[in-house]
Design brief:
The complex is a heterodimer of chains A (711) and B (299).
Chain A lengths: L1 E2 L12 H12 L1 E6 L2 H37 L2 E4 L5 E2 L5 E7 L13 H15 L5 E7 L3 E9 L2 H10 L9 H16 L4 E5 L10 H11 L2 E7 L7 E8 L9 E10 L5 E10 L6 E8 L4 E9 L4 E8 L10 E8 L3 E7 L12 H7 L10 E7 L13 E5 L6 H12 L3 E5 L6 H8 L5 E8 L8 E2 L25 E2 L1 E7 L11 E5 L5 E8 L2 E6 L16 H13 L7 E3 L4 E4 L8 E6 L5 E4 L1 E3 L2 E6 L6 E7 L5 E8 L12 H5 L6 E5 L5 H4 L9 H23 L3
Helix pairs in contact in A: 2-13, 3-4, 5-6, 7-10
Chain B lengths: L2 H6 L2 H10 L15 E7 L3 E7 L11 H7 L3 E9 L2 E7 L13 H18 L3 E7 L3 E8 L5 H10 L8 H11 L5 E6 L5 H13 L3 E8 L1 H5 L5 E6 L6 E3 L1 H25 L3 E6 L4 H15 L2
Classes of the chains: A alpha/beta (711), B alpha/beta (299).
């Protein structure tokens, strides 16, 4: 025999209570002078033995009652040789219901989630009287709703009825761990777990680890897969800025990817793009989208004013609504200020280090207004400039930096600024490596080549432009970067991150021989992009190529949009945004769709005021308002994981390897959950002891009444 | 009246009892004319019978009319009306100290004794008093003077029970002491050797005395209404006893009832009047009830 709540056996210590009461009652004696002792002596002698027997019998019954109650509460059960529990009826179960967005799949009627709720309610209905159930919702995280097994199954049923879908991905592992932990604490592992999930393979990636936990627990596991089964599904799997930046009032290009998650080819798929919830402004038609494949299209939208704009790519509605649209927040800018720090200003501007970069960033006449506003200064002038006034800073052939400049640059980048570093003849690589340390995405190694020789040169990669900065050259129609010649450069050796605020180095562009030509790293809220060659024609002829202008603008866009990365978070992520000092402790209201607004305060995080919001289980736009005069308004968007749209199921055979005796039930309206409860490994014997306790209590009451009657 | 007289003589009781009176139920010897027949024949007020003359008889009692008609010598005999002597025996043992109400058994019995004494004196009968435990502790010799009532009441008031009882011995002693027939009124809880006590009563009856037994018990001694754990401490030096009274109530009450029945039957068998007195009842009711029944039944 084993006990499901063995710690409650400690309740047996309560048998001391009646003994203590008995002793106290014996000690609480009234004293009285009495004349008729002769009669009292006679009757006492006659009844003394009987009274003593009655006293001890009642005491024994009271102690027995407490022992039986303690045993009943400890929930005894018998384990058979096969590991099954046999005995009375009451069970302890944990129902874990998947509320990831794939559970929203419908066949035109009820969704998998609706059917999952029905299945959960049927499980509760099928439980024997006295059973208890815990309930948790899971997606890629497990959230206990009824965290402790409750005897009030109606409460559990109500919680199931009130549960809602999220736009999160799925991972069964946390849910299984949480469920087994509940059973371990409340049923010594001897309960039953019901995992109600659509069984998509992506949720079972950690099956190996789950097997170990399930085997260790000994709990019985039943997987319930509610229908409907697979349905045709198209989803917007990606939405990104195609343009380098989004200037206010100009059209911006957006790259939208559509994926066919169904089993059949989809034809004439229309993708539309809308800004700020207005009717679609641009759309494209994909004539053929084979099953399992993705297609990218470029769509254009005009961001009329500076500020935050919600850009939504949308497909026609289908069986899974959650992936039919994807929204991102883009901040349109009136102007982008760039500080170009030249190691050599040159006798004339044309001879300076910044000439070509300045022209590439603002390829218009000097008197013409352009949204990118570069300013060229010398290294000596850098000390008097407030870096925070600029969206990006470029160091061009700067020989070296003193400690103060390095500290200013470090703070600037950490606060969201962008930094470009171009080497040159005056640059001391060792000095840079030492001064900037981990901020550099790659260490500056020894120079290679000869700028004067012009004989030997390197070229850039001709294909595989996967990085967003260079992705436009994936299309041959956009030209090529591979024709530029690089006569000299420094060897870039990517430097792994060493702190939590540092991103890993990423190679944006390589030379033909695979050596890194441009490397980037995020640094705090900002980004650093390091080049292996100059920004002018001293070491290469790239400035003379048409690709130089878009490349530099895209690099600038990469730096400038870094601070807006926080505006687009994955579903379930935490939105953080640097706040102005006067926002501190002001009320922050966040509203999503038609839901009621939620309020919180602007708080200090690591000594700096910050907006934080983490309740982002749903995708789409969240509008934030700060209670200032006038109110500050901004928006962010949560985007769901496209992996969740992959509905390929894991096989029943694989699922059954989870643990010995694992059942897989494909739930339908005709399915009887009583059969799922068969086998009874959670059967218990507490009711037997409870009945015995009741019988002893009745016996005690009867005898106490009878004994206390005068004799 | 003095304060103890006020305490011992309740005007209401006296008024009721006066109306009923306490009459001897059988002929008693007395020394003054009263409401009671004397067993002595001789000089008479009321004719009783004739007897033949024998030499030495007082010729004043010769019935000449009979002599003239029948020529025989008969002597007239008369019944002499006399007062009776009532001897009140009040149990003053320690067990009489118990009382669950306002009065202890002794205080109640003391009132009874005072009232009876007053009543007897009022009807010009004689009364004697003994307060006893294992022996007579206070005595008031026989008196028919109302003036002595004061002494009786003083003695009753001053007495404080401290000793164990011996009713039987006391009755035997009294039977030996009492030369003339009278009424013996025993007021006691009778918590003593029943056999010895009965023998004492029989001794008195044998001497021609009328015996009245007022069996006094406290209401709690009859009903035993206690609960919880109680340690009973005997008033007459019995061993202490701790028990749960509610569990024994029925047995106890049965035991007390059996005791009362035994005493009552023994009294009835010996033509001795037995009156059970529950101290929760007003004494006036008990006394008037008793006197009324006595008048009705001729006792």
């Amino acid at each position: 025999m084993t006990f499901l709540n063995p710690w409650l056996l400690a309740g047996m210590a309560a048998i001391g209570a009646p003994i203590l009461i008995h002793m106290l009652m014996k000690m609480r004696v009234k004293r009285m002078k009495w004349a008729a002792m002769r009669f009292l002596q006679v009757v006492t002698q006659r009844n003394e033995r009987r009274l003593r027997v009655e006293d001890w019998l009642l005491l024994a019954l009271r102690c027995l009652l407490l022992i039986l109650l303690a045993i009943a509460l400890a929930r005894p059960a018998f384990r058979s040789a096969g590991g099954m529990m046999v005995g009375g009826g009451a069970r302890t179960v944990v129902i874990a219901l998947d509320n990831s967005y794939s559970m929203g799949l419908t066949d035109g009627g009820a969704s998998r989630f609706d059917n999952g709720r029905k299945a959960a309610e049927e499980i509760l209905d099928a439980l024997p009287t006295g059973s208890q159930a815990a309930f948790l919702l899971f997606s890629d995280v497990a959230r206990p709703v009824v965290a402790e097994p409750a005897v009030d199954l109606n409460l559990v049923k109500k919680m199931i009825g009130d549960s809602a879908l999220t736009d999160r991905g799925s991972n069964v592992h946390p849910a299984l761990s949480a469920a087994l932990d509940i059973l371990k604490r409340h049923a010594s592992g001897q309960g039953q777990v019901f995992l109600i999930t659509d069984g998509q393979a992506t949720g079972w990636k950690e099956l190996g680890a789950m097997r170990g936990e399930a085997a260790q627990s000994g709990s019985r596991i039943t997987i319930v897969e509610p229908g409907p089964g697979e349905q045709p599904d198209l989803g917007v799997s990606a939405l990104e800025m195609g343009s380098a930046m989004a200037p206010a009032g100009s059209a911006a290009r957006f790259s939208v990817e559509a994926t066919n998650y169904g089993k059949a080819e989809a034809r004439n798929v229309t993708i539309s793009l809308s800004i700020d919830g207005e009717p679609p402004g641009d759309q494209a038609v994909i004539e053929s989208l084979p099953a399992g494949e993705s297609r990218r299209v470029s769509l254009f939208g005009r961001l009329k004013t500076a500020g935050f704009h919600a850009v939504t790519a949308q497909l026609p509605p289908d069986h899974l609504a959650a992936d039919d649209r994807r929204t991102m927040i883009v901040r349109a800018m009136d102007e982008v200020r760039v500080l170009l720090v030249a190691g050599d200003m040159g006798a004339t501007p044309r001879e300076g280090d910044a000439f070509f970069l300045r022209r590439a960033l603002a390829p218009v006449a000097d008197d013409e207004n352009f949204f990118i506003k570069p300013r060229v200064v010398s290294v000596a002038d850098l000390g008097g400039i407030k870096l925070a006034d600029y969206h990006a800073v470029a160091l061009l052939d700067v020989p070296q930096l003193d400690q103060q400049r390095v500290a200013e640059l470090d703070k600037y980048v950490r606060d969201g600024g962008g930094l470009m570093i171009f080497p040159g003849d005056k640059t001391d690589p060792a000095s840079f490596d030492q001064a900037l340390g981990g901020m550099l995405p790659a260490t500056m190694g020894a120079p290679w080549g000869d700028s004067a020789g012009k004989g030997k040169f390197r070229t850039l990669q001709a294909a595989d432009y996967t990085h967003p900065v260079v992705s436009i050259w994936q299309d041959p129609a956009s030209g090529t970067l591979s024709t530029a010649r690089f006569y000299k450069g420094i060897t870039l050796q990517p430097l792994p991150a060493s702190g939590p605020d540092e991103g890993q180095p990423v190679t944006i562009l390589k030379y033909q021989d695979g050596a890194p030509a441009i490397v980037e790293r995020t640094w705090g809220r900002g980004r650093v992009i390091e080049f292996s060659s100059t920004a002018n024609a001293a070491w290469n002829d790239l400035p003379a190529h048409p690709a130089f202008v878009p490349l530099m603008q895209r690099v600038l866009g990469r730096l400038v949009t870094r601070r807006d990365d926080a505006l687009n978070i994955p579903v379930g992520g935490v939105f953080t945004w640097p706040a102005q000092p006067d926002w501190l402790y002001k009320e922050m209201t966040v509203k999503h769709g038609a839901a009621a607004p939620e309020s919180s305060k602007v708080v200090l995080v690591n000594g700096a005021p910050e907006l934080q919001y983490g309740d982002t289980d749903l995708s789409g736009v969240y509008d934030v308002s700060i209670d200032t005069q006038p109110p500050v308004k901004l928006s962010f968007a949560a985007q769901s994981d496209p992996e969740e749209s992959k509905l390929d199921p894991i096989s029943d055979a694989d699922l059954k390897t989870l643990a010995q005796g694992t059942q897989v039930i494909h739930w339908g309206p005709e399915t009887s959950m009583r059969q799922a409860l068969g086998g009874g490994n959670s059967r218990e014997f507490w009711s037997v002891f409870a009945a015995l306790a009741l019988a002893v209590a009745c016996c005690e009451m009867f005898l106490a009444g009878r004994f206390s009657a005068s004799k | 009246m003095a304060s103890y007289e006020n305490r011992l003589l309740d005007p209401v009781v006296i008024q009721r009892a006066e109306m009923l009176g306490l009459n001897a139920r059988q002929i008693v010897e007395g020394y003054m004319a009263g409401a009671h027949k004397s067993p002595l024949r001789g000089m008479a007020i009321e004719f009783a019978q004739h007897r033949e003359y024998s030499p030495g008889d007082d010729l004043r009692h010769l019935d000449y009319k009979v002599l003239g008609r029948t020529d025989r010598y008969y002597i007239k005999q008369y019944e002499q009306e006399t007062n009776f002597v009532a001897h009140i025996l009040l149990d003053g043992s320690e067990s009489m100290q118990y009382g669950s109400g306002k009065l202890t058994k002794f205080e109640y019995a003391r009132q009874m004794a005072a009232t009876l004494a007053y009543l007897i004196l009022l009807q010009r009968d004689a009364v004697a008093l003994s307060v006893f435990d294992s022996a007579a502790r206070e005595r008031q010799p026989r008196t028919d003077s109302m003036g002595k009532l004061h002494d009786i009441l003083m003695k009753l008031s001053a007495f404080d029970p401290t000793e164990q009882t011996d009713v039987g011995r006391m009755l035997h002693d009294l039977a030996v002491e009492m030369k003339k027939k009278g009424i013996v009124i025993l007021i006691s809880d009778l918590f003593d050797d029943e056999e010895k006590m009965l023998q004492g009563i029989q001794h008195l009856l044998f001497g021609g005395h009328e015996v009245l037994v007022f069996h006094v018990m406290d209401h709690a001694e009859i009903e035993f209404p206690f609960t919880g754990s109680v340690e009973f401490i005997g008033l007459e030096r019995e061993a202490r006893l701790t028990t749960q009274p509610q569990a024994l109530r029925k047995s106890y009450c049965a035991e007390v009832k059996a005791f009362r029945d035994r005493v009552r039957l023994a009294c009835e068998r010996n033509r001795c009047h037995y009156v059970f007195v529950d101290t929760s009842q007003p004494w006036s009711e008990v006394l008037s009830g008793y006197l009324a029944s006595r008048q009705h039944t001729g006792y």
